[in-house]
């Protein structure tokens, strides 16, 4: 599960929440990135204690199940909770990627990090295009099931 899946799922979720026309729900959604700050701190500590490859796998697989749940739920507060958990796991995954690249490609770190950032940027753009389009054309279930599969 990579940047494309997260971008696609969160773009679709933003459209879904905007359709609900509830400013409080949308405000909580927009604050999710800031609310994951503690998860980012914990991710750094976990990487010091455990193998980065296992944490990368955990951060990649668990969001798939959360996205499947998001496809089945109609409750906006539960959607937000699953989105928060997925975003927190994303922090773990991104930190694990950076750690693995640093360990593996120390001598070529600048080039490898540049490539990774480019791939993430392209995937982010594609996800932003796919998410709302798929939600509009195929509905909530199809949109989040695709994100789980990516």
Architecture overview:
The protein is built from 7 helices and no strands. The protein has 150 residues and is mainly alpha-helical. The protein has helices at residues 3-20, 23-35, 37-49, 52-72, 76-104, 109-138, 140-149.
Determine the structural class based on helices, strands and strand pairing: mainly alpha
Helical fraction = over 70%
> How many strands, which pairing sense, and closed or not: the largest β-sheet?
none
The count of DSSP E runs of length 2 or more, i.e. the number of strands, is: 0
Tell me the number of helical segments per DSSP (H or I, 4 or more residues long): 7
Q: Which spans have pLDDT < 50 for at least 5 consecutive residues? A: none
Q: What gyration radius follows from the Cα positions, in whole Å?
A: 16 Å
Shape: globular
Mean pLDDT: 82
Percentage of residues in DSSP E strands: under 5%
Ends apart, CA distance between termini: 6 Å
Helix and strand string, N-terminal first?
HHHHHHH
List the helices and strands and how they pair.
Layout: H1 3-20, H2 23-35, H3 37-49, H4 52-72, H5 76-104, H6 109-138, H7 140-149
Helix pairs in contact: 1-2, 1-5, 1-6, 1-7, 2-5, 3-5, 4-5, 4-7, 6-7
């Amino acid at each position: 599960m990579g940047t494309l899946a997260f971008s696609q799922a969160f773009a679709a979720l933003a459209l879904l929440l905007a359709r609900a026309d509830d400013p409080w729900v949308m405000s909580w959604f927009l604050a999710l990135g800031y609310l994951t700050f503690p998860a980012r701190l914990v991710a750094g500590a976990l990487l010091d204690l455990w193998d980065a490859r296992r944490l990368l796998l955990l951060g990649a697989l668990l969001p798939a199940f959360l996205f499947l749940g998001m496809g089945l739920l109609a409750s906006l507060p539960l959607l937000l909770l699953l989105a928060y958990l997925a975003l927190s796991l994303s922090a773990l995954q991104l930190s694990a990627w950076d750690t693995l690249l640093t360990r593996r490609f120390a001598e070529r770190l600048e080039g490898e990090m540049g490539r990774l950032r480019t791939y993430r940027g392209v995937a982010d753009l594609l996800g932003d295009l796919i998410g709302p389009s798929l939600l509009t054309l195929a509905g909530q279930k199809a949109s989040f099931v695709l994100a789980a599969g990516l």
